[in-house]
Design a protein that fits this description.
The chain contains 11 helices and 5 strands. The protein is mostly helical. The chain folds into 2 domains: about 180 residues, Hypothetical protein af1432, CATH 1.10.3210.10; about 55 residues, Molybdopterin biosynthesis moea protein, domain 2. The strands form 2 sheets. The chain has a 3-stranded antiparallel beta sheet with strand order 1-5-2, with no helix packed on it. It has a two-stranded antiparallel sheet with strand order 3-4. Helix 3 crosses helix 8. The protein is globular, with a radius of gyration of 17 Å. The two termini are about 35 Å apart.
Length: about 240
Amino acid sequence: MVGLLTVTISQTNTFLGGHLRRTALICKSFCEYMRYDKDTVYRIYYGALLHDIGMVGMPEKIINTPSEQLSEADFIFFKRHPVIGEKMILSAYDLRQTAKIVRSHHEDFGGDGFPDRLAGSEIPIGARITRLANDYDNLIYKNKIKAKQAAETLKERAGYIYDPKLTPYFIKFIEENVTLKDKETKPAGIKIKDLKIGMYTAEDIMLSNGMLLIPKGIILDSAMLEKIQSFDTLLDTERVVSILR
């Protein structure tokens, strides 16, 4: 079900599909880095993968524009998406815990977020982690700022937007694993069939039917390469894509 929903989202808006996948992969890797149990890891992973599902069908200007740059009317509309998303997935019994993450991923640690103005430990830990990963990705891909500056922004907002205990661990994690190199070197071109573990995608990899397979901004691992291989009939494996080693 989650896979089907993710494919649907990717079809409606390429940016949103890529954002959800990047956010989810960061959350999953961070939870493993923190040595959370497997059930917790996957509950948070699915929550992150679906956190913006309530934005499906919204105007592209709302999806693609940084929230702080939206007009007052558009921001009011934007603020509905956590509740809409929760309602969309609550009907699936196994996703009820995931739905709480979807609803609360815009709550501020200091209590000024939405939709419920929760504060501190009232916010599910999965939502606190998703908020960090979500904002980190948006700062880079929506606000177009450097990765190091994005990390500094998270650090500055710890305590009133982000969990002050989790934030230092998250920043340390992305420094060690996601890499904070600003990647000022020019992307290299490589054939899809020659992609290797550790390469960083500098562009989306799309299937011939227009579906997003691998979003830009992903560090390839063995699971990603297996996914590419499993879709080889829908890929031109000789096509050159941009990567950063």
